[in-house]
Design goal:
five-stranded antiparallel beta sheet, alpha+beta, single chain, Beta-Lactamase
Amino acid sequence: MLSRVLMLSSRHVGAERASIIVLDGNQAVEGALIVNDFLLERSVEHWNNVLQDGLAGWVLRNRQAVMLSDTSRDERWAQRPDDAASRTGAKSAICVPVMAREQVVGILTIVHPKPLFFNQEHLALVQSIADQAGIAIYNARLYNSLQAVTRRYRELFDDSIDPICITSLNGQILEANRQAISLTGYPAEVLAEKSILELLKLPADWLSVNAEPLGAGQTLRQEGLLWTADQSAVPVEVHVRKVAFPSGDVLQWILQDITERKQLDALRDDLMAMVYHDLRSPLSNIISSLEMLNMLLPVSDDENLRALLSIAIRSTGRMQRLINTLLDIYRLEAGQPITNRTRTEVAPLVYEAVDTILPVAENKGQQVDVQIEPNLPPLDIDTDMIRRVLINLMDNATKYTSFKGKIFLSVCRKGDRVEFSVCDNGPGIPPDALEVIFDKFARLQSERFPKGIGLGLAFCRLAVRSHGGEIWVESKVNEGSCFTFALPVSPGDGESPSG
């Protein structure tokens, strides 16, 4: 393109030579030189020297066109060996800035072998050519940038470690990268004839219900099965987002193979079941033996021995609650209903839970206050399960509350539900973790928080929801947290006087 500009320029004005330097800021990035219709190569270093010492540099700095009638009489012209009087001698020259969007993108220079050759008409013609050249250079740069972006996109798309499909808004596959082709087992040309809904066995209205409402920057996440060419099912996590293309909106599908994660989940579930079944029986025997020893031990015996026995009983009871929690999580996640419900009075249930954690709280000098609204109706619940919910919440409160801190447990009726609240004045929970803490195996990563296996709150949420209830937390950093769960009142129980 540059050589074409120079050929036209030199021929239209009868010039001997013409050059054009393309700029990036104040530096040359490339250039072209025509001498008597022959294209000569010059280095970028050469063009930068011209910009530093020659007429082109003055034009660049001043952003003005210059017409020299005699190059030997103007100090702005860098004299070359062939400019000597004994050789080609003085010349005429026109040098103009090449502009695009009010920026200097190049310098065009035209040289005629005779002095006093150029006039104002020549200057106007060269400036007109330079203006057209500026548009051409700008468009060429846009084209090169577009090609570079396209290449980069293709590299990112094809070399992604995740399978990616681009589909129309109705799910028809338009493009698929190498990983998608490998995962599905279909050749690219076959895959391009299929719908993503077919591969994922999604209903026909899935896109209209889930994908169409997606806004800019929003991503839809869902787990499912991807059916491959050999009709095997691969568990995948699907991320769908709407992308605006010049030809219209499309959907980008990122398919992450989660086979290993599913296998790990299954292994963890099997481990939980094994731990429960293999440890429950011997632990029950240990607990029974300790309780018998406690009953048979005379009151007059060594108090230190009785204290040690009490610690052993509490510790084994804690182990039993943890094992029961593991089993309950396993059962509740499998969708098993609560079968052993009984009508349970609220106050005795609460005080049993408080008695369980009271020795731990007293050892830390913590104050435990309990407030129970009178005349609460009995609840139709799995008594042991809800007791363990209360114990878990209060046990967390003792862990996170500092020495001589305060713990407050309150129970009241609100409408057709009974609400239980456990509040502390501990370090509080960061806002971005208020929902995460209820996930299985989730733990707060900070030295301020005690370590655990991350099952207690996950069990609480499963247990409360399985009873048709709700659990939530309110917290302020450095002020404390308040965990509340609500259980529905059994049908037939009228409003309490305080309701």
